[in-house]
Design brief:
Blueprint lengths: L1 H6 L4 H8 L3 H8 L7 H11 L3 H5 L2 H5 L2
Helix pairs in contact: 2-3, 2-4
Length: 65
């Protein structure tokens, strides 16, 4: 998620705004300090223009498609 956010030039705050979440929640998820619900995974994926499964799939698998 950090790489995807960085590719867009977004801060944690910008991603949080786009996803309708709090900036500290994004920070905790990125540091793997907090579990994420499927609802919030979907919100983040939509903000990044992705499907939720794409956030859960290893990047090597996506590149091979």
């Amino acid at each position: 998620m950090i790489r995807l956010r960085g590719e867009r030039g977004w801060s944690q705050e910008a991603l949080a705004f786009e996803a309708g979440l709090h900036r500290t929640f994004i920070a905790h998820v990125e540091r793997q300090a907090r579990n994420i619900s499927l609802d919030n995974l979907e919100r983040i994926a939509q903000a990044l223009g992705l499907q939720a499964y794409q956030l859960l799939t290893p990047q090597e698998s996506l590149a091979a498609r």
